[in-house]
Structures are given as structure tokens and as C-alpha cells.
Design brief:
heterodimer, A: alpha+beta, 11-stranded mixed sheet, 11 strands, 19% strand, globular, disordered C terminus, B: alpha/beta, Elongation Factor Tu (Ef-tu), domain 3, Rossmann fold, 12-stranded mixed sheet, 6-stranded antiparallel beta barrel, 23 strands
Chain lengths: 402, 606
């Protein structure tokens, strides 16, 4: 019978074994008492902030269709990202300012052959970032961080030759790269725009997956770090905020926060943050939780933050240099940062989450209908140039995922 | 030279520019997403489309809603607003505050052999078509609309008002009825205070203007005649008595002698008062003008009473002569004893005879203002303006009838008699082709056959024949008989139509039912003026070809208006609910699309 999974006795045994493994993993002790105390002592409360001085916050997010179409052994990807800038306002809370003239939108055609594909990738990198590839790598501080992290040093040209470029058919990785580049490209445009934002926040992390490697890097890693460099130059703080923080046992940290803040059992503590320890700054760590994960990421500082009881615990990453300049030795400024972020999280459409980021997400999101229209327009344009309509395939149906 | 697609599109783009984008469409409804702008139900939009031949779709809003761009659940927003202290709603850029419009496609205009032709909405615009707002105050847009809807708006006809786009009328975009609409039956529906009188004034003025242009050879069409019942005595002087603008009188005063002769004489205004100003005429009819069938339209009669009345009118008495047009005076003089000996009443129950007399009692002197006795045997000769009224209507005239001082029965009798006589004459005219036979046909139609002792409507027949022979009634062209197509379109207005045209009243037959079914053939039409659609006989309603529907009193009436409209009013139900004073929906069997109009304020037009 189609769709029917036969439940045999063997399968039931496998289910039980799986559950047992997961339970054993979970009950493994994570924190010792000293670490728990350190966590409690480093939980910082900030006030529910209903008024703010004049500043701007930007939010950026990306979307697209990865891929949109396939044609023979090539794929067409649609990458888009957009941003919003809001300034604080006594009457409206936040007021949007015009920033980008339009979304960062790119149509990328990737064939399977390596030489042509490389050219297309580099073309896409330049288009999405807005500046030449070698300039991004040159001006970014990624090479310096890599060197410090033990990843060796390479020239710009070597790095370009060594960039990780997935094959066109590796749609998942192509999608990750293109979307991330679109987002950081939009972020760079906002950083260099006329608005002097105090905060630019993106829904991602500061992770640099290949920074410790001796070879191979992702272009968006360079671009990400370039945004931090440019941000510092122009006085724009670059932050990332992620709900997917890669940390287990968060309920443990939550309960420690409750204890630290004197919140009753059953209630959820809110308006607090915890800076995760940095090995060369703090004399404590949470290896028991993070194990071999690189948290904070190289070149960044990480916080756990809860803005509101209705929103989950999130991770906020800050550029390390920026943090050292402004927050490392100034706890009042550090708390003020969270109060500013809290203030920006009181819009009725996204209570408990910084609204500029939500707005950026909403602006850039492509609906199913829009994806279809873009597909059709691509096909129409190609057919007008003499290509065969029948050879275009909807990539989602081609892979069996509709 | 008709503007092309590109030229029209350029005009649109020069104006406001793109208003929104088509989001969804099906054959029932379009959804448009647009910038946050002040729009209203009824606003018009244009969707230029090049899928297939070049077309402009015309879309009309039936509802709209404020939407926040890409917000998924406004319920959550409202909840947060309620439960979260100090929450706010950020002020987004204007482009993010959008409105979602829903509406219907009225149709599309397609470029066909050097001109634009309007089609009913069998097709849809393509995905994501740009949408342009029709701004009534923009002359560029007005020109686009005039071009695209030329075939529907009408020209060289009778002006009703300007096309409404939303709440505003579009200057220069006139909605007109063709002159022949007068002979095709019109319904004017609207509750008290909706602006019917002003609409009628605008309409009457345009009829005068049409006649003037026809008489001057500037319009190639038949002239129009209308018998306009005026229950409030407004049309003649309008607001002049209170220092405001003069009515029809003011227009006629400005005519030169030649125009007065061709367009007004002998009169334009009938009233039961004594009058002396030029063009005004005291109104009176004769008992000789009334037939038994006329009574059926206005008073309740039993079968027996009607049968007796017919018999008394048409059958010979003891002297072998039928009463004919003397039947009323003879009947009033008929005593019980005489009735027993009269072959027309001997076998009739006395109660029936008395019943008919009672029903005729309103004609007695002192019980009415306009009916004069007729009994030439005792010197009460035929005195009636009916022959001259018929003559006027056959010459292309507007005749206003002030009914303020007469009873409802008198008003209905006047309308019924006039309509019947016109219908009879036009039928007679159609059935003959020589002047010699014409007199015979007319007398026969009026039941006047002196050679066989059948009097019928002898007095009226004599007067009409006289006027035909001397040319005052233009039925003869030299040695030939005119065709009805050479004569004016005639329209008889029936005010308070439910009183005369309800199903009960026309059960025994009605000249209006006959005219509603056959009048078109003879160039005679009716205008039914009513506050209610539901009270009018369905058979009559189905014969209407033009409806001018104004604000109605309740949901039942609106539903009836939608059901009976000559054009599909789907999507306009909400419109009917919110119509303001002076606004009307024009539907007609010769138009493909309902047209919302606003009649100009008569006080303010030139």
C-alpha cells in the first residue's frame, strides 16, 4: 500500500534503541557547579525600554529561489536581499527611512562545466557584493583572522583560486552561498549609504566555517568580515542575531537565569543577556556545553539574549574589534546596547524581536506566486532569444521536491 | 483619428502614473495591490494589456481594505497592541502601506480596425498587469475614458449626467441615452430625496436641446416628445419662486419666435389653474375622452361592471344608436326605470349599474377639476385640450403637466387617455398607406362608424381628423401617409407608477401593458417613476430597456433592481447601498455595461 510504513518488530526495536541513545546523550552532565555559578553571576538584566534617544537601526535579510530552473545541465538561481533602516521616533516608535533604491537581486546561471562555472561564480560574487572580488578579499580582515586562527596565509589571487565553488547541481550549497552573499552585499550597501546606523542586524551568525583551514574559503566569509571592517570605519555596528544558536542545554541556562534574576518557578525570565566567555578574556568557560563548537566565532563575541518571554533565547554576535572598542570595559554601554535593541523590539508586528530585521525579512521574502512569475519571465526571455521552452525544467519538480 | 494604445498609455503615464499591480484575477473578480491612497468604492481603473490584441481593461472597485505589506496575521498585531504595554506600530515608508482592492472587470476596449471597440468581460488581463487609477479631474484621463468607452457613453443623444469614477463625476465624460430610448421604456427608481426631480430636469433640458438641434438640421435624428407629469409643480419654474434658477420656463423664454413656433407651440405647460402666460394652458378634458377601458386602469371594477360599461358605451339603445362618447352623461341620466327598459341594461342587476355610476362619480362637476361635461344634446359641447395635446406630442414637444391640484385619479386618467389615444393613432397610421384610408382607420380605431350608427369617440375623432387634414398633426406628407419613423419618439411619464401598474390593477388589462409590449413598434414608450421596484407588475418590468436606478429604500428593492436590470449588475450591489443624492446607475439593453452617473445640479448648469 503506497505511503504505508511496515511496522515490524525489528523496527520497533530500532525505535527503542534510538530513544535510549538520545536519553543517554541528554543526561550527560554539562556544567559543573563552578560554571553554573559563573553563568549566574554573568547574567545581566536590562530594563524594558520604552523610550530612546535618536539613533538608527538597519535590518537585512535575504531570499530567493535556489534554484529557480534547470536547463540541460545548468541551473538558474535567483538571489535577493534587502534591508530597511529605521530611526527612533517619539510618536511612532520607529520611522522608516529610505535606504536602498531597490533589493539586491541577481539572476545567476551556473553551468556544470568548471571553467565556465567559475567565471559565473566570480561574476555573481562581484554583482552581489557590489565591488570587485579581489577588492573584497583585499580589504576584508578575514586573512588576518585566518592567520591568527592557524589557517595560514595566502595572497589574494591564491585565495580567489582557492575559493570553494560548489557544482551547479549542488543546489543546497549553491543556495547557501548565493543567499548569504546577497545578504552581506545588501548589508555593505547600507553600511556605505548616507545613513549612519548605530546598529545593523542580520538574521545569521558571525561564524567563519573555514577560517581555521589551511585552504579553501567561502567568499561570503570574506564579505562578512569586510562588512565588519567597513562598519568600524563608518561607525556602524554590525551584529548578527540568530534563533539557531547551536547550543544544547539551553533550558539549563534559562533556569540559571531565573535563579539569578529571582524569577519564580514557572515564569519566564526576560530582558537579560549573558556574554559567552572568550578564552583570552575570561577566566571561565562553558566547554561542557559548547564542546568543540567555535562559539564565539573567530573575530566575534557572542551573547545569549532574551528580549521577551514570548520570543526564544537568541544569540547575538558582535564584531570583536567593535566590542573591544565600545563594550569590553564599559558595562553601562553594553547594557545600553541591549536596551536599544529591546526598544526596537516593541513593534506590534514582531513584539520581542528587533523590528528592522523583521521588516527586512518581510521586504525580501518572495512568495510562491512571485517565484513562479520570475520563472516564467526567465523562460520567456530565453525563448525570445531562441532557446527551447521544453528544455526548461522546474528544478523543484526535477528533484522530486515540489 | 482615434488615439492608439501607445498614445493612451502615454496619457495615463503622464498623469498619476502606475497606481498598483494586478495580483489575482478570475472571471468573477480582480484583486489589485496598490499604494496607500485615498480610494473609494466605485473608483475606476484601467489595465493596459498586450496579451493578444491591444486592450484596455476597465476595472471597478467594489471593496477595498488596508493591508500592511506582507503582514501575515493582523490578528496577532491587534493582540499585541492590546496586551503589550508601550508597543507601537512603526511608520513604514508609504510604499509599504498598501491597499488591496477587489472589484469587477466591466469589460475591455480592444483596438480593432482603427478604433476602439468595447466588449463584455469574457477575457482577463495577464498576470501582474499595471493598474492605472482613473482620476476624474484629470483631462488626460477623461480623454482616455471617452475614447475607450465611446460606444457605451453615447453621443448626439439625451444627456443624463457625467460618468462617476468613485465619488467624483468626470467632467467632459457624458453619459447619454440615444433618443430612441424614449420609445423603448424607461424605469426611474429612487426613494424620496434621492434626486429624481433634478435628474428629470436635466433629462428634460436635454430633450429640449435635442429637439432644437434636430430642427436646425444639426442632428440627424427624430425629435422627441415627452409628457412629463410634475406632481410637485417643479419643472416649469424650478427654484425661481424662491429666487433660484428658473426651470423649463427659463429655457423657453430665451427662444426666438421661430424656435418658439417649432419647439414650443401651442403649449409646454398644462395646469388646472387659470393661466395666461405664453406657452401655458389650462388643462381640461371632456367626458367624451373617457372610455370604459380607461377606467380599468385607475379604479377597481368588477367583471360585471366592466362588461356593463363596455356594453353601454358600444351597444345601440332603443333608438339604434350607440352612446359612444355620450355614455357617461347618458349613464348619469339613466334612472332605474329607464334602465329596465334599455336593452343595454335591462338584464343587468341594478346594483351593477349603480356600481358603475359610483365609479364614475369622480367625473361629476364638483368632484374634479379637469373633466367637463359632454352632452351636445343640451348644449354641452366638446371642450378638451386632448386633441391639441396629441398634436403637440406628435410634433416633438415637451409638455409638463402640473398635477399638484388634481387628484390621483385625474392624473392617472389624463395619462391613460393620452397614452391610449396616441397608441391608437400610431397603430392606425401603421396600418394604412393612403390618406383616404387613414381617416377611416382612425375613426374605426376610435370606434366611430357613423354610417352604421356607432358613435364611438366621435367628438375626438372629428377634432383629430381636422388637425390631420390641416397639417397640425403631421401624419400626411403630400399625398402620402407618414411612417412612424418620421414622427417623434414619444414618451409618457407615469408618476407613482405602482398605483397604476401594480399586478392587481392591470389584471383586467391596461393600455400601459399594451404599450409596454408593443409601444416600441409605434415609437411610443413609457417612463415609470417609482420609489419601489417590487410593487410594479413583473410583466411591465421585463419590458423596460433602460433603468435609471438611484438610491433605494431597502435591501429588497435593491435586489429587485439588480434582478430586473437590463445589464448585469453583479458587483454593483454595494454601490446601490451607498449611492448618494443625484447618483444613479444607468443600465440599458443597448449598453454592455452599467454606467454610474451623477446628474449635474440643475441650478448650476448653463
Amino acid at each position: 500500500m503506497p505511503g504505508h510504513i511496515p511496522i515490524s518488530g525489528l523496527f520497533n526495536q530500532k525505535l527503542a534503541d534510538l530513544a535510549q541513545e538520545m536519553v543517554s546523550w541528554e543526561i550527560k552532565p554539562r556544567l559543573d557547579e563552578e560554571t553554573e555559578n559563573n553563568i549566574r553571576n554573568n547574567i545581566v538584566e536590562f530594563s524594558h525600554t520604552t523610550s530612546a534617544e535618536n539613533f538608527c537601526m538597519a535590518g537585512v535579510d535575504g531570499s530567493g529561489d535556489y534554484p529557480s530552473l534547470s536547463y540541460a545541465d545548468s541551473f538558474v538561481y535567483v538571489a535577493t536581499a534587502s534591508g530597511t533602516v529605521y530611526r527612533t521616533d517619539n510618536l511612532h516608535g520607529l520611522v522608516e527611512l529610505e535606504c536602498l533604491s531597490g533589493p539586491n537581486l541577481e539572476l545567476i546561471w551556473l553551468p556544470e562545466g568548471s571553467k565556465k562555472a567559475t567565471d559565473q561564480w566570480l561574476k555573481a560574487f562581484e554583482s552581489l557584493s557590489g565591488i570587485p572580488v579581489n577588492q573584497v578579499i583585499e580589504e576584508s580582515d578575514y586573512r588576518q583572522l585566518r592567520s591568527l586562527a592557524g589557517g595560514g596565509s595566502m595572497t589574494v589571487d591564491e585565495i580567489i583560486k582557492d575559493l570553494i565553488l560548489p557544482p551547479a547541481s549542488d543546489t543546497a550549497n549553491c543556495g547557501i552561498q548565493l543567499r548569504t552573499m546577497a545578504e552581506w552585499g545588501a548589508a555593505l550597501r547600507i553600511i556605505e549609504s548616507k545613513h549612519s546606523c548605530r546598529y545593523l542586524i542580520m538574521d545569521t551568525t558571525m561564524s567563519l566555517p573555514f577560517v581555521k583551514n589551511k585552504s579553501g574559503s567561502l567568499f561570503f566569509e570574506h564579505l562578512k568580515r569586510l562588512c565588519c571592517v567597513k562598519g568600524r570605519e563608518r561607525g556602524v555596528g554590525v551584529y548578527t542575531l540568530s534563533k539557531s544558536h547551536s547550543l544544547p542545554s539551553l533550558e539549563l541556562i534559562e533556569s540559571l537565569a531565573q535563579e539569578a534574576l529571582g524569577v519564580k518557578d514557572g515564569s519566564i525570565s526576560e530582558h537579560w543577556y549573558l556574554r559567552l566567555p572568550i578564552f583570552d578574556v575570561d577566566d571561565w568557560d562553558i566547554k561542557g556545553i559548547i564542546e568543540d563548537r567555535q562559539i564565539p566565532p573567530i573575530g566575534a563575541v557572542s551573547y545569549l539574549i532574551r528580549l521577551h518571554k514570548n520570543t526564544p533565547l537568541m544569540r547575538l554576535d558582535v564584531d570583536r574589534e567593535w566590542w573591544e572598542e565600545r563594550y569590553k570595559n564599559d558595562p553601562i554601554a553594553e547594557r545600553k546596547m541591549f536596551e536599544d535593541i529591546d526598544y526596537c523590539g516593541h513593534d506590534q508586528r514582531a513584539y520581542g524581536y528587533p523590528f528592522p530585521v523583521k521588516a527586512g525579512h518581510d521586504r525580501t521574502r518572495i512568495s510562491r506566486a512571485e517565484r513562479l512569475v520570475i520563472k516564467n519571465q526567465i523562460i520567456d526571455a530565453a525563448v525570445a532569444q531562441g532557446m527551447k521552452r521544453s528544455l526548461f525544467k522546474d528544478a523543484s519538480t526535477a528533484t522530486g521536491h515540489v | 483619428m482615434n488615439p492608439t494604445f501607445s498614445q493612451l498609455l502615454e496619457l495615463l503615464q503622464q498623469s498619476e502614473g502606475r497606481f498598483g499591480v494586478l495580483a489575482e484575477s478570475n472571471t468573477q473578480q480582480l484583486t489589485v495591490i496598490a499604494r496607500n491612497t485615498d480610494v473609494s468604492v466605485g473608483d475606476l481603473f484601467l489595465l493596459p494589456c498586450k496579451r493578444g490584441p491591444e486592450r484596455f481593461y476597465i476595472f471597478r472597485t467594489t471593496e477595498y481594505a488596508n493591508v500592511l505589506n506582507r503582514s501575515i496575521d493582523l490578528g496577532d498585531v491587534a493582540r499585541n497592541k492590546l496586551t503589550m504595554p508601550n508597543s507601537y506600530l512603526s511608520k513604514d515608508l508609504e510604499e509599504e502601506n498598501l491597499i488591496q482592492l477587489k472589484g469587477i472587470v466591466l469589460g475591455y476596449s480592444e483596438w480593432e480596425t482603427e478604433c476602439w471597440t468595447f466588449h463584455r468581460p469574457r477575457r482577463l488581463p495577464e498576470h501582474l498587469t499595471d493598474v492605472y487609477h482613473v482620476d476624474g479631474s484629470d483631462p488626460n484621463i477623461a480623454e482616455v475614458i471617452r475614447t475607450l468607452l465611446a460606444g457605451q457613453l453615447g453621443q448626439d443623444g439625451l444627456f443624463l449626467g457625467n460618468l462617476l469614477a468613485g465619488e467624483n463625476a468626470m467632467p467632459g465624460v457624458e453619459v447619454q441615452l440615444p433618443a430612441f430610448a424614449l420609445s423603448h421604456h424607461i424605469g426611474l427608481f429612487g426613494r424620496t430625496g434621492c434626486g429624481k426631480s433634478n435628474q428629470m430636469m436635466v433629462f428634460l433640458k436635454s430633450i429640449l436641446e435635442h429637439n432644437r438641434l434636430v430642427s436646425e438640421g444639426k442632428r440627424n435624428d427624430q425629435s422627441c416628445s415627452i409628457l412629463a407629469i410634475d406632481p410637485h409643480d417643479e419643472f416649469q419654474t424650478w427654484h425661481a419662486r424662491s429666487g433660484g434658477k428658473d426651470g423649463i420656463r427659463g429655457i423657453i423664454k430665451d427662444y426666438d419666435p421661430d424656435q418658439t413656433e417649432k419647439l414650443v407651440e401651442p403649449f409646454y405647460y398644462l395646469t388646472s389653474r387659470k393661466v395666461s402666460d405664453p406657452g401655458e394652458q389650462e388643462m381640461f378634458l371632456s367626458w367624451a375622452d373617457v372610455t370604459p377601458q380607461d377606467l380599468v386602469s385607475v379604479v377597481e371594477m368588477t367583471d360585471q361592471q366592466l362588461q356593463f360599461a363596455h356594453r353601454f358605451f358600444s351597444q345601440p339603445d332603443n333608438s339604434a344608436q350607440s352612446a359612444g362618447d355620450r355614455w357617461i352623461s347618458n349613464l348619469f341620466d339613466l334612472s332605474r326605470e329607464a334602465a329596465e327598459n334599455d336593452p343595454r341594461s335591462a338584464d343587468v342587476h341594478p346594483g351593477t349599474v349603480d356600481g358603475v355610476k359610483r365609479r364614475l362619480s369622480f367625473l361629476q362637476t364638483g368632484n374634479n377639476r379637469i373633466f367637463r361635461r359632454y352632452n351636445p344634446d343640451i348644449g354641452q359641447n366638446y371642450e378638451s385640450i386632448l386633441p391639441d395635446l396629441i398634436m403637440s406630442l406628435e410634433r416633438g414637444r415637451l409638455v409638463i403637466v402640473d398635477t399638484t391640484l388634481i387628484s390621483e385619479i385625474e392624473q392617472f386618467m389624463l395619462t391613460t387617455i393620452t397614452a391610449r389615444v396616441l397608441f391608437t393613432l400610431r397603430k392606425a397610421l401603421r396600418s394604412t398607406d393612403t390618406p383616404q384610408r387613414l381617416e377611416q382607420e382612425i375613426r374605426s380605431a376610435l370606434a366611430n362608424d357613423p354610417q352604421n350608427g356607432i358613435r364611438g369617440m366621435e367628438a375626438l375623432a372629428d377634432q383629430l381628423i381636422e388637425r390631420i387634414e390641416d397639417g397640425r398633426i403631421p401624419y400626411l406628407k403630400g399625398d402620402n401617409v407618414c411612417s412612424t419613423e418620421d414622427l417623434p419618439y414619444i414618451n409618457v411619464v407615469i408618476e407613482e407608477a405602482p398605483s397604476v401598474l401594480n399586478p392587481e390593477r392591470i389584471r383586467f388589462g391596461s393600455v400601459f401593458r399594451d404599450i409596454s409590449r408593443q409601444g416600441r413598434k409605434f415609437g411610443i414608450g413609457l417612463t415609470l417613476v417609482s420609489q419601489q421596484v417590487t410593487a410594479i407588475d413583473q410583466g411591465i418590468l421585463t419590458q423596460l430597456n433602460t433603468e435609471i436606478t438611484m438610491a433605494l429604500g431597502n435591501e429588497e428593492e435593491r435586489r429587485a433592481a439588480v434582478r430586473n436590470a437590463s445589464t448585469d449588475l453583479t458587483g454593483f450591489e454595494r454601490e446601490l447601498q451607498v449611492m448618494g443624492k443625484g447618483q444613479a446607475l444607468i443600465t440599458a439593453s443597448y449598453k454592455d455595461v452599467p454606467l454610474p452617473v451623477l446628474a449635474p445640479d440643475f441650478d448650476k448648469i448653463d
